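Here we describe the complex-level prediction in full. Unlike the single-chain runs in Section 2.1, the two entities below were treated as one system.
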Amino acid sequence: MPRTPSISISGVQSGQKNIRIPAGAIFFGDEMDMKKALLSLRGVKKNYGDAQVLRSAGFDLHSGEIGCLLGPSGCGKTTLLRCIAGFETVDGGEILMADEIVASATLHQSPEMRGLGMVFQDYALFPHLSVTGNVAFGLQKLPKREVRERVGDLLGLVGLANHARKFPHELSGGQQQRVALARALAPEPKLLLLDEPFSNLDMALRERLSAEVRDILLKRGATAVMVTHSRQEAFAMADKVGVMEGGRIRQWGTPGEIYHAPADRFTASFAGEGVLLRGRITVGGGVSCALGDLGEELPGREHGLPPATPVDVLIRPEDLVPDQPDAGVFGVILAKAFRGPEFLYTLQLSSGEQVQAIASSHRDMPLGSQVGVEPRLRELVVYPAEPASCGGVLADALERGCDVTP
Amino acid sequence: MSSNTGVAASAVDAADASRLRRARVFTARRFISGIIALPTACALVVILGAFLTPAPEIWGHMLEHVLPDVTRNTLLLVLGVAVSTTLLGVGLGWLTGGCDFPGRRFFAWALMLPMAMPAYVMAFVSLGLFDVLGPVQSALRALNPALPRWVPDMRSTGGVITVISLTLYPYVYLFARGAFLTQGAAAVDAARILGDSPSRAFFRVALPMARPWIAAGLLLVIMETLADFGAVSIFNYDTFTTAIYKAWYGFFSLEAAAQFASLLVIVALVVHGLERFSRARMRFTQAGRSGEAGRVRLAGWRAWSGTFSCALVFFIAFVAPTLQLVAWSAEAFRLEFDGRYAWLLLRSLTLAGLATIVICFAALALAYVRRGNRDRTTAIATRIATLGYALPGTVLAVGVYIPAAFLDNLLMDAAGRLGLTMGPLLTGTAALMILAYLIRFMAVGFGAVDAGLTRITGSVDEAARLLGARGARLLLRVHAPMLRRALLTAAILVFVDVLKEMPMTLMTRPFGWDTLPVKIFELTSEGEWERAALPALSLVLAGLVPVMLLIRNTEQEPASGRKGG
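The structure predicted for the assembly as a whole is:
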């Protein structure tokens, strides 16, 4: 895979991901497939009256993995989490933990029997108990000395050893969050559930804490399912991401797969920026589009579509390198957004189509100037063509209310 | 975080205000708040002063023969009512707020209806129901002549406690249920996932978390119990309130009445202080999403016993007494419903209407003053002006009568010296009654108006001003429409409270001025239950209006709270 300088400079985070996540997935992948999944969901359905909140949700999560349910509000992700927890009954399908059915249309194991931990969106700390009391709450059956030890260990782990005697209202939001995590981890649950755990925190704290929480979970070897609507959070935390929409899981895969090889248009637009360009399949399995002939040598060319099929090809901003005078394709800068490390440029090609590209903010190219663009794709992602309105810039496509169903 | 900025902002305000204070000590606004607080302050000083002034001779007699009984009775009553309202309120609050069973939605609001029943109405209805010739004993006698012996005597300490508890438990119920609804669900979920069964989660989490709420409701119950005059006098159960009344109207010793009042007021102020404290604590324990998610779904016999308990309380506390009132009213209707009843009704309504207008204006003025001046002086004036609600009516009657009589004597002396003859301006006139109502119910009106006014934030004013609305235009086009509902709520609450008020009216009214409660007092002291039923039923119906308002507010809150989650 050719790694372009622009990607490694501009997308520190995504660059890191490219190395870590797919590598990890491949490394664990074979081993994991042999093992049974710790948590399995098969076609889970849930209705509230006439509203189908979950239509058919399914995935497998293996021991030690952090899974993340990502989706817009109202997609059913929180309901799915509450079904796993046992706060909601399911109307169809089944939920298995360690190969044992815990929920189906006819069976419902109550939450206290499932041996789970959960971090709630608003933490739900017990205001009448101190930090110690909160963390020790689930340790009723242990002898006192062990309780003290474990609470001490956990408070050390989350960095709150000095706050053991305080009450929740005396703590900051980030500290409350860590107490909630320690409380959930204390009984050593088989599976930890996290419901939008960072949504009540400000941006700076959110990034720091999500990295911290991931470290803590890895240290404990915990298996976890998290719900979020933020792809940054999902990518930062998860080994596996499930993109949800309309009560279904659209795609279940590593963050790298979700971002670089989205299974459908919805996932493509929800997982990142970029555009869909109109093109046709070439004889070699690549695509001929406004950027020229692409992808005959790339993974993803085995899509099975016959030559000359009209398709939309996914171009992420980092797939294009602007400011290449030797390039065969030129674009006019229509808009640009300064993002600190890089600029996001929106360019208009001679075909009239728009593309997005990122480049280091060391250089500031003026609006209206014409620049050469060179495509450097990592993977070919094509979808059979749809009405013209659904091509173009991805973020807009969602807002235009385009039908993004496959 | 917002509360921190609020504190910081008010600190800045206070600093600004203190700078202003040096410049101008007396502003028109402060003057207004002072005037509104003055009557309450006067009444308080007079009553507390009685504690320090030398007691009249008769007080020695009362100290020896009346005070011990009165103290014991009052303590027993408060204790009994506190225990039974806690059990009823918390139990029912958990059932409708934290569990699910058939009829839960109906009972959630129906169980608040007994609030509409004044304790003195409940008192005489229960006496009538359990009377030797009443429906309960008659029905039992029809079954077996020996059965009525087993009917407990209602005219007992237990009887008074039961009657008062049945009308006051909704306070605890309301607060406890609110607590279980707003902060129970998420915490109970958390406890269950940590391994607790539903009932364990109730005792380990939901109940301890609700403690400040329950305490707030319970302290209101204690305040009301201490203040109750009508129910205890119908039961001939001597407490501080009846002692005050008897000292004044039985022994004609206003001084002895003031001595009793001074003792009662100290207790009432302590309870009031505790109530404010527990309200402040409620803020700390406000954690977690509200919602229906955490309900414990009762099944089988548990579900039906939940339904049965709610139905039983609802029947005893509301349905049965209302039916009895309707039955009596139907009998007495032709007898009572004539021109005299129309006059009685008209006078009650006029008096309540007048008091409502005065109180709403005063409340509006005070709320605006406080909005503009967030300084200590105004805060203290507001506290004093709204303190009257914590003071029993009998105490306040003494507290307003003594200074009013003093003023009247001064005026009549002065007039006499000028060779004029004039009657008292205040004592024995409707003016004094309205003043007493103002002191007692200011807090009710102020609370409602202030809640409306705080919704008009500074930025609303600023936005309107930038769009060109200022002065009268701002008040008319922005404030008036935004305040309309708050004012209406204030008016309804005050109107019904005044309409139901008994002891102050009884003790400060002009001669021969009967209102519905006074009529009920007179008729019931002669044992004429049937004839008292019609005015009582009228009061219950009027009382249902504010309860409905309350129900609408509380039933809306959880729904709007859920949007965030």
